[in-house]
């Protein structure tokens, strides 16, 4: 009751009037004006906490991947009816979400389920992905136009369009990585840009939230029959990638390692894994200019460098295993802005050269192959292609050479 009265008082104190819609609500548009008397009631408040960094993907497009944090700051439910991502300079829309596409990207705090309605006081993250043509101008600044219908709003202002979350695009120079593995048919599982397991893995650590795995890839490998494993799925040795050498992707200094965690039995995620042991046996490599590379889940005893060691691009640093929070042998790799694999923000990086030889049809098809041993279902008719200085995208099947 106190909050509702405060909202009504706010309406009486000078919020702009507008014509009512037939249903008693109204459609108004908020501005960023700061002049006295131009203030606008905005049920949803929000900000971009880590700026998007543009990069070119293996699809030949430029991508921006980031999150808009929002809170319903009213005493009633508020429905988010639409969202546009605008180039602040030109005013043109570079992205738009409505309906199911929007619902699936709004994730309330502490939940993995999508929604387009926020309860009173509820916070959420909206996961955003902008795709631009390769020759398109990348915006210098983005702003978000959100259409909402707020239950607890001043009279005549239930339905409004507001702007929030202005952010400068971070056009930093990205590191160019060499191959972390050698050979054919490596699957870039759960990679950028819309695979939810990594891109939406928000971690509350040390009093704030991080998305260290924003651009992470889980590399697995298929044999010449496109099977991830043959034989007993509980034996890690039966997986094609198990024991493969892992290489330094750039010159750097080792700033973190672990080497003594045991192999896990494939097939199910282990129970009782601590946050600190989730990456299993790992190496964190400082490659300079604020970029760090995390390699995870390597075999016990295989991690070669120690903290403080200098490594050279192409050095063997360990062997692929199944340690830590892992359901099958694989190499997890992500780039971040700090030495902690958890309390850092994920950053994009590109690979100097690789070939895309096929594309797994979907994450569900990958999961079926990983879980049962059936051959991967591939997108038909894909022409193999060579790539340079691009990010490997989700479910690409790639070949790495020296």
From TrEMBL:
<dbReference type="InterPro" id="IPR011055">
    <property type="entry name" value="Dup_hybrid_motif"/>
</dbReference>
<keyword id="KW-0378">Hydrolase</keyword>
<dbReference type="InterPro" id="IPR050570">
    <property type="entry name" value="Cell_wall_metabolism_enzyme"/>
</dbReference>
<feature type="region of interest" description="Disordered">
    <location>
        <begin position="16"/>
        <end position="38"/>
    </location>
</feature>
<dbReference type="InterPro" id="IPR016047">
    <property type="entry name" value="M23ase_b-sheet_dom"/>
</dbReference>
<dbReference type="GO" id="GO:0016787">
    <property type="term" value="F:hydrolase activity"/>
</dbReference>
<feature type="domain" description="M23ase beta-sheet core">
    <location>
        <begin position="243"/>
        <end position="338"/>
    </location>
</feature>
<dbReference type="Pfam" id="PF01551">
    <property type="entry name" value="Peptidase_M23"/>
</dbReference>
<protein>
    <submittedName>
        <fullName>M23 family metallopeptidase</fullName>
        <ecNumber>3.4.24.-</ecNumber>
    </submittedName>
</protein>
């Amino acid at each position: 009751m106190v909050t509702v009265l405060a909202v009504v008082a706010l309406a009486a104190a000078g919020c702009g009037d507008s014509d009512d819609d037939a249903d008693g609500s109204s459609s108004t548009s908020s501005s960023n004006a700061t002049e006295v008397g131009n203030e606008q009631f905005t049920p949803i408040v929000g900000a971009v906490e880590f700026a998007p960094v543009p990069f070119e993907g293996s699809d030949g497009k430029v991508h921006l991947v980031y999150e808009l944090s929002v809170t319903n700051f009213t005493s009633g439910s508020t429905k988010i009816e639409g969202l546009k991502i605008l180039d602040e300079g030109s005013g043109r829309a570079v992205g738009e979400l409505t309906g199911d596409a929007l619902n699936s990207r709004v994730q309330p705090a502490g939940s993995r389920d999508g929604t387009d309605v926020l309860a009173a006081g509820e916070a959420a993250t909206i996961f955003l992905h902008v795709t631009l043509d390769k020759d398109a101008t990348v915006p210098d600044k983005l702003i978000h136009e959100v259409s909402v219908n707020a239950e607890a709003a001043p009279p005549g202002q239930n339905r409004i369009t507001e702007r929030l979350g202005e952010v400068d695009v971070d056009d930093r120079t990205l590191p160019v990585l060499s191959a972390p593995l050698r050979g054919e048919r490596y699957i870039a599982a759960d990679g950028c840009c819309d695979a939810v397991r990594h891109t939406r893995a928000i971690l509350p650590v040390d009093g704030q939230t991080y998305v260290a795995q924003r651009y992470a890839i889980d590399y697995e490998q298929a044999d010449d029959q496109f099977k991830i494993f043959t034989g007993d799925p509980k034996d890690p040795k039966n997986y094609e990638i198990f024991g493969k050498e892992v290489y330094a992707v750039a010159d750097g200094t080792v700033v973190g390692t672990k080497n003594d965690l045991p192999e896990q039995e494939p097939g199910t995620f282990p129970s009782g894994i601590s946050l600190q042991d989730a990456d299993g046996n790992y190496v964190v490599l400082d490659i300079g200019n604020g970029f760090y590379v995390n390699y995870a889940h390597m075999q016990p005893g295989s991690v070669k460098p120690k903290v403080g060691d200098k490594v050279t691009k192409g050095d063997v640093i360990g062997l692929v295993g199944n340690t830590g929070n892992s359901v099958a042998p694989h190499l997890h790799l992500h780039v971040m802005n700090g030495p902690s694999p958890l309390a850092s923000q994920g950053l994009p990086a590109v690979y100097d050269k690789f070939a895309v030889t096929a594309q797994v049809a979907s994450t569900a098809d990958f999961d079926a192959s990983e879980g049962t041993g059936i051959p991967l279902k591939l997108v038909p008719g894909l022409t193999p292609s060579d790539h340079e200085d691009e990010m490997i995208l989700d479910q690409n099947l790639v070949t790495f050479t020296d």
